[in-house]
Design goal:
By secondary structure, the protein is mostly helical. It has five helices and four strands; from the N terminus they run ααββαββαα. It has a two-stranded antiparallel sheet with strand order 1-2. The chain has a two-stranded antiparallel sheet with strand order 3-4. β1 and β2 form a beta hairpin. α3 packs across α4. It is globular, with a radius of gyration of 20 Å. The two termini are about 35 Å apart.
Amino acid sequence: MKQHYCIVNDTVKDNLIAFIRTLPVNPRAPMVVEAREETRTDKQNRLMWPLLKDLSVQVIWHGEKLEPKEWKDLITVLVSQMQNPESEQKSAPGINGGRVYFGVSTSKSSKRYMVDVIEAIYWFGTDHGVKFSEASNRRIAWAQEWRASRG
């Protein structure tokens, strides 16, 4: 059995509490209840890629042109470091040599995290002279409006 409740008002919260009260208590097969921020939407994912494409076309990073996915790895690590300055970027020796650096998966990221990613792309790109496409500018405006509406 799987139930989802998006707590958007007190009525939904009361319904969730009522549902929890109906759950069986069984020490051998306990139920797990998880509370977390809603994960990013497909719309947010679609917002991110044109921005990353603009970076990949216009920015040369340490002598290299990077693909949008590589920019995503750099940006998500930046956002994670900004949110948790004590953490270090995780890396490991590559199977065939070199080093592998691990970015952050955005598929299970929160909406708030994705807004931070979009804003970080915009900040980095602006700082490096990127002229964002019209599609990207609409996406940046959406992220800024979303942030402002959430306080």
